[in-house]
Amino acid sequence: MTVPPLIRRVLGDVPFAEMGLPNLGVVDEGSRRIAVTGDVGRLQWSGAGTADSRWAGDRIGVYDRDTLRCEHLVRSRYPGHAAAFHPTLPLLAVGTGSYDGGYSFEGELLLVHLDSGTVVSALRHEREVLSVEWCGPGRLRLVLAPCDDWENDDAHQQGHTVVLARDDWAEVGPRTVGPEELAAPVGPAVRPDHRAETRRLLAEVAAEAGRQWSPRRRVWAVASGAGGRVLAALDGVLAEAWLPSGERDWAVEDEEGGRQLVPASDGASVWTNAERRLRRRDERWERDAPRIARVAVGTGEVLETLSLDRSGVLVAGGSRVIARPTDHARKRPERLTMLGLDARTEGPEVSRFDLFNHPFDVRRASRPYVLVGTRSDAPHRDKWVVAVGADGTTRRLFPHSWDPREHHFGGPAAEIGRSLVYAGAVHDGAGLQPGGAYVVRRSLDGAVRWQHRMDQPATALDIDEDTVYVACNSGALTALDADDGTVRWRTELEIDGTPTTALSLAVTPHGHLLAGTVDGRILECSVRR
After folding, report:
1. Percent of the chain with pLDDT over 90
2. Are 443 and 487 contacting, i.e. CB atoms less than 8 angstroms apart?
3. What CA–CA distance (Å, rounded) separates 271 from 259?
4. Do residues 215 and 229 touch, judged by C-beta distance below 8 A?
């Protein structure tokens, strides 16, 4: 088995990187620790201008205040609202939760054991915890949101205050706090926003350690550029470039940030796109047109900016780059209008296929490929891989699902030889099942050459001449033999012992593997030693 990759260097490595956008920071002067709650965002972009809502990124981190080393990293099901260090025990209480959007206030009381990293969810039934405060070694004061807002318009401004008593909080087990202990009168409850003060705190703590801090998260695309530069697109940054020395050369900031990096035909610039969030205007939800720009690799100068009348993604193949409009509302199919970006001409409208929001970003493609739904009554079931010709004509290659009994979600892809390697997941009404995610290699006539089954969906994929590299949302990075799909090696991505997840991959001309992570860092790895 080939040796797993060696991380050669880490770019964009700021303190508290694991937290993404921090929500709360609490300092314990006695233990010289700082607890932070934050959000690294959703862990997969749908390819339709939005982040896929299936994988949330709420986290809790405990750091050594002097070295800024991450001692414990906890993935939370809900945002963290409050945290408090126990006055004598190595224990952290964290209140989490959120409104489910329609009825309930859900959340947890988490007890993080700082000596072992063990996490206990103490409430028997989920409940949003708004505030936690230790009132001595044996008593914990909580403010909880109401269970729901049924026939209660004031529920979002209310809370229930209770005090829990235990002889030894280190011995509290999972789900041992029942509803009878949480019964209390309702009263007004403030839901404070700690984000601004937390940012100031983290900047001050970083400065005390001789470091600088600014939030970074979700590197959606990475690429190698001229002069040994490393390019990236991430939240808040349309595109950036890093020099071989490890210094950031330039950055083009953006309200939302870049999602794709596609080399332009001149070899000295890249196309990138930034989506816009839904905003409520005049009782309607609307989205501004995306920003599509061509940026000079050597200087970071924005050479030109193009506009679409709706959201879209970039599709590359050979020397061509096209923009594919998408319909966020999914109320009707969208016709594919190809924009010949490098030719500055709008191509013909392709009217034979109806396009829906199916991600299918094919790397190293000799021509553009798109994933289309061909049935207006079931567009998500009958999807075909379609090649786009130089004149804008399209040709069906094969159904996306090789099993007619199943329909599959799309994922990242690459062209290798006269075949496509792509990742996906099998739809199941009960959610993703074990082995329901996959990587498959198919000839252009649709024949399956091999398939590799996984339990977690892929977030990124790239290839070299004989290896397929696949990143999963679990944090796993796997190398598959391109000829037969067997596993060459598999590893869990870590930075200084702390797990992370790759959202983007790119093999460089020198044979290194770039990985853009969910926490805003870029890893340059040696994969052949």
Report:
1. 69
2. no
3. 10
4. no
